[in-house]
Specification:
The protein is mostly helical. It is built from seven helices and two strands; from the N terminus they run H-E-E-H-H-H-H-H-H. A two-stranded antiparallel ribbon has the order 1-2. The C terminus is likely disordered.
Length: 210
């Protein structure tokens, strides 16, 4: 990842830029969070006297894994946003300079180029995927809040996703103020930990999970 940034690039003013590949940045970030997730899951397994990540087949278990997949996608596009400096464009919310999807989002006419390799499209995905991730996580937490094992966790899960969503909005509105950007990254780590905790604890009671 570091090597990918050690190339001669210049901005419109002729100043030398050193930017890493957003794809390599995403791989680096996902790998780090994956290691953290493995460590946390091992701790939760030891505390719950269970082993492995296999689903118990319950409805809560399935929805929690859907939430994890959506969270992972959001992390990837968050890394794309950081790597492409996409947070410096369209610093308005909830619309992008008054539009849901500005014309420049699809400027290249290629799905991959527009939404994974172009700052306008990447920001579009990251900001709108956030709505879906938040909705699913809040829905899962609220829907299964009456399961005994989850009664002390579901509120924390909603709080974690709400704070992370708010940090994302504030980071965007301030054109990526460094303190908010760091807090937004930290918020992702906290949300991952709480989501894994919710997932691990919820599968302790498959008989009551409907």
């Amino acid at each position: 990842m570091v090597k990918s940034g050690l190339v001669d690039q210049k901005d419109s003013n002729g100043q030398l830029l050193v930017d890493v590949s957003h794809f390599r940045l995403a791989i680096h970030l996902v790998a780090a969070l994956f290691v953290l997730a493995l460590a946390l899951w091992t701790v939760f397994d030891l505390r719950n006297a269970r082993r492995g990540f296999a689903s118990d087949g319950s409805t809560p278990g399935k929805w929690m894994r859907i939430a994890l997949v959506l969270f992972a996608l959001q992390v990837i596009w968050g890394a794309f946003t950081a790597g492409l400096n996409a947070g410096y464009v369209y610093n308005t919310w909830p619309l992008m300079n008054g539009e849901f999807m500005p014309e420049n989002v699809t400027a290249f006419g290629s799905f991959w180029k527009d939404f994974a390799d172009h700052k306008d499209g990447v920001q579009f995905v990251h900001r709108n995927l956030a709505w879906l991730v938040a909705a699913v996580i809040v829905g899962v937490a609220f829907r299964f809040r009456r399961i005994d094992a989850l009664q002390k966790i579901w509120v924390w899960l909603i709080a974690a996703v709400a704070v992370q969503f708010l940090l994302g909005v504030l980071t965007l509105l301030t054109a990526v103020r460094i303190e908010l950007g760091v807090l937004h990254q930290l918020g992702a780590v906290v949300l991952l930990a709480v989501l894994l905790r919710h997932c691990a604890t919820g599968r302790r009671t498959p008989a009551t999970a409907t």
